[in-house]
């Protein structure tokens, strides 16, 4: 079944005035609705430019971008942007507004009635796991970096955008908090099935979050595929180098168990030990070494069973995966 | 000091009229100054092409001490209230303009980027985001401009604008300390009072955004 396309890039090229090179070069790809697509690349590879072309902060040099089949250049710019959530590093919250006022930015612009706004703000604060009793009337300066980023995400989600654009949103956040935010984002996306374009230079983050990863270098797409396919068949040397640090465990560090899930029988589900579907394979491997056994039952953060992961599958990946 | 109070009580209506005239000139000059300097300062912060020529002119004006500036302007605008107001506006515009400009330029770019990225119109970004965030700096300029204008109006008495400067001129020419001090002390008190009030307002604005 062909799924709906949320965003389509058609030969998209961007060259900034005064530059001798294209910051984004001849990019063509489709982003399926309801998926998380991460844009991975080193600094200066054109990730931010691609994202800012998508919400028309930058104008295209050539090519076209379509939003649900419509050329974005034909849409009124501010109305179009309100259909996209936009979250950047450091959140960019308004320091003179409370958490609630920040989250209400777009509903306010759309002139929603007051009680509907309030209701939505409370709902969003629950969604990003910020206690309204404590944080509703706080100012951004009174929050930690991680909490500010949660507000940033809630603000972007306020008017139920079908597409979220996120530019290294967790880049300036400590490792542990970042992991919490990543898990919260995955859970949230599963609940509301929106489309997310997520820029990062962190390989683990890109592979953990994504249904599909766009690997970029020098403005060009190097590979656009599922995490598993990229690991098992890197398209070229650049991708191979980016995803590997050279040791045997590389692929286990970037792939989560999600990539190797198999169907589990009722009996297995009843008796098998549980593991989160956000677990990287190296941690799952550790679990096998510790416990013994042939399989682990994979569940989501909120306890839904997704299937099982078997020791054999991990072994197979170790034996034939990367070296094709 | 006793002489001063005595002089004031025996010339009450003249004293009050002088204060009213003085403050009226100040208010008119400051209102015109803000109406020019704040929008222009905002535009300069946004458009480099505009900023360079405007800054050249304002910097040139800033090099000249304010009192000297006042007398230089006199021959061009003649005497009376209108030329006094024009001179005072020219005196105060650079301060407010430069402060507005640096206030707007000092806003974190991420804040503006996410505002625009969310689909806020330029007008909204300006009014709801940039102006409140630049306000403490704008008020800093306003505070300095108020002091400059209140002091400048004293000198405006020399070109027949009236106001508290009249006492100073009269006192000096008659060699009467009480009359001169009446003007000087009142101007000083007004300046200090306004400065205190404005610094409180500025602190409040600052606390809101930090
Ligand atoms: N506004 C701009 N003007 C000129 N060049 C730019 C601009 N923005 C980005 N670039 C250039 O485009 C290239 C890609 O930048 P960017 O998209 O920010 O990379 P990334 O987000 O992957 O780090 C870089 O070489 C950068 O210098
Ligand atoms: Mg970037």
Report on the structure:
The complex is a heterodimer of chains A (324) and B (210). With 324 residues, chain A is an alpha/beta fold. Chain A contains 15 helices and 13 strands. Chain A has 3 domains: 5-83 and 162-245, Rossmann fold (3-Layer(aba) Sandwich), CATH 3.40.50.300; 100-160; 257-323, CBS domain Like (Alpha-Beta Complex), CATH 3.90.1280. In chain A, the strands form 3 sheets. Chain A has a 6-stranded mixed beta sheet with strand order 6-7-8-3-9-10, sandwiched between helices. In chain A, strands 2-1-4-5 form a 4-stranded antiparallel beta sheet, with helices on one face. In chain A, β4 (62-67) and β5 form a beta hairpin. Chain A starts with a strand and ends with a helix. Chain B has one domain (2-209): MetI-like (MetI-like fold), CATH 1.10.3720.10. Chain B has 9 helices and no strands. Chain B is elongated, with a radius of gyration of 20 Å. Chain B has 210 residues and is mainly alpha-helical. Chain B has helices at 2-10, 12-46, 48-63, 66-77, 81-105, 109-117, 122-156, 165-174, 177-209. Helix content of chain B is 88%, strand content 0%. The chains are: A alpha/beta (324), B mainly alpha (210). The A-B interface holds A 55, 57, 77-82, 84-96, 105-106, 109, 141, 152, 155-156, 165 and B 108, 110-111, 113-121, 124, 129, 132-133, 208-210. The complex binds adenosine-5'-diphosphate (ADP) and magnesium ion (MG). Residues 47-48 of chain A line the site of magnesium ion.
